[in-house]
Prior knowledge:
- It is a single chain.
- Helix content is about 50%, strand content about 5%.
- By secondary structure, the protein is mainly α.
- The chain starts with a strand and ends with a helix.
- It folds into 2 domains: about 1-145, Toll/interleukin-1 receptor homology (TIR) domain (Rossmann fold, 3-Layer(aba) Sandwich); about 180-360.
- The longest helix is centred in the last third of the chain and has 21 residues, at about 305-325.
- It has a 4-stranded parallel sheet, with helices on both faces.
- Helix 12 (about 245-255) packs across helix 14, helix 14 (about 280-300) runs antiparallel to helix 15 and helix 14 packs parallel to helix 16 (about 350-360).
Amino acid sequence: MFISYSHKDKLTADAVCAGIEFAGIRCWIAPRDIDPGTEWAEGIMIGINRCRLMVLIFSENANQSSQVRREIERAANREMPILPFRIENVGPSSKLEFFLGNLHWLDALTPPLAAHIESLVETIKSLQGPALADMASTLSSPRRSRATGAWRARKWMVAGGAGFLAIVVSMLVWTIGGKLSSPSERDGQVIALAEQIHTDINNGAFDKADKALESLAGLSASSGHTLYFEGELQRIMRPNRDLYRAIDWLVRYADDPRNVQVLASDRFDAKFCYESAEGFCRQRTGWVAHLIASIFYRLSIDQTIEAEKRETFLRRADQYIQMSVKFYPTGFQATVAAPTQTVDNAWSTSQLTALIRERPH
């Protein structure tokens, strides 16, 4: 299944993706499934070509998105079935009506969203019929295969019981104003687990942190805490460290639209991250962007990688170092905390910026 959506509707798209994959049907969703070093447009084309059906998260945001329009056009040209999943009471714009006007729509206009996702899954199964078996596969969490090196084939679902879908949906912004729900017992548990993982990592108790992360992922699979600590443990755990999986998780954190909310804050301290179950703060986002820039720069100078990809890695390094400075203007100073790591963090932000800019693009 290819999931098409506006980046402004990412939380809903993530919930839909989780619900479909929970039913054993593989999904392709950006940016999760775009390989590092692949241009965005190329990655989208590859994704569409790999899939048999498109689910469109339809809203006014999708109406206004040129990227969504191009994805729909590509799917229509391939004669791929398109299933609109409408989350706002709007009709298709004139640019989309040609492709969507005569299609069957599924409306998800009223809460709870989980019930609508269940209906969506049933519709998908009825559309696919026997062919669905070819799309289903044994899905496993990326956390369960750190040592396999199978990151490029990432297709997973987060394990959970019968209440899994409801937990995912409870994390969504489901009000007109887009405001988060009030603090709850679950939020307190998420924050407590995040603080525990942070302490365990600082103490070098990686196995303990990994076990706590299992619980955190079960409670809040798409929180910033989960995305960040998944990436950190993939980056630093030995002997099963997987740098490419680390990139995947950290990029998902950095590219999450919830970062826009913390950019407006004047709080630069990391403690701010642990005041919310969402797990986003300016210092953490600046640090994650710094890490990603550092990793991409190292890949850009790896002579075993083809030249075209090295150039792409350098551009990505430049993109994220600019993001780092935007979120955390003072930059991060050089450290020697872990000189043996693949990414040793021994550059300050200014040094890394200079190294990137010295290289011709």
